[in-house]
Write a structure and sequence with these properties.
This protein is an alpha+beta fold. It has a single domain, classed as Nuclear Transport Factor 2, Chain: A (Roll). Helix content is 28%, strand content 35%. It has five helices and six strands; from the N terminus they run H-H-H-E-E-H-E-E-E-E-H. The chain has a six-stranded mixed β-sheet, with helices on one face. Strand 4 and strand 5 form a beta hairpin. The chain is elongated.
Length: 168
């Protein structure tokens, strides 16, 4: 009887974190390859339908249409992009995970010379109802210092004639 009773209590779900971490790391590597091959449809397919992309110097892009608009110029022939995760953490619940990593992007300057930007990213992955992992939030930014805004020129105005005369 005791054996039957112990089988009827709440059971702890299996710990799938190691397998989930491997799956997410593999998906992220495939995603980087899709972007490197400039496949826009494949690149955007890694996001959930309600995902948000927080790219530098742009408003938050939410949903596939907005995310596609951000990715499109990044996959042009003048841009080379790759990234790699260096840390992954999966929640014990098995439905959320995040990756931290670094990226490298090379593009042509207005003079046609290659300019390389190195930076970092955070991706939040969420297990979908079908069991597949998709990116729910993606943020990246450059390691380069922010460019300074142009300084406003001080307009010198001519001295008023009444102020330039000495009063005796």
């Amino acid at each position: 009887m005791l054996l039957l009773a112990s089988g009827c209590g709440p059971s702890t779900p299996p710990d799938t974190r190691a397998a989930d971490e491997k799956a997410i790391r593999d998906l992220d590597a495939e995603w980087s390859k899709a972007a490197a091959s400039k496949d826009l449809d494949a690149t955007v397919s890694y996001y959930s339908d309600d995902a948000s992309l927080l790219a530098p110097n742009l408003p938050i892009a939410t949903g596939n249409h907005a995310i596609r608009a951000v990715w499109s110029p990044l996959l042009s022939s003048d841009v080379s992009l790759s990234w790699a995760a260096n840390k992954a953490e999966v929640a014990r619940s098995g439905d959320l995970a995040y990756l931290l990593g670094v990226y490298q992007m090379t593009m042509k300057s207005p003079q046609g010379k290659p300019v390389t930007d190195n930076g970092k990213f955070v991706e939040v992955w969420k297990k979908q109802t079908d069991g597949k992992w998709k990116v729910a939030a993606d943020i990246f930014n450059s390691d380069s210092p922010a460019s300074k805004p142009p300084e406003k020129e001080k307009k010198s105005r001519p001295a008023h004639p009444a102020h330039s005369k000495k009063h005796h």
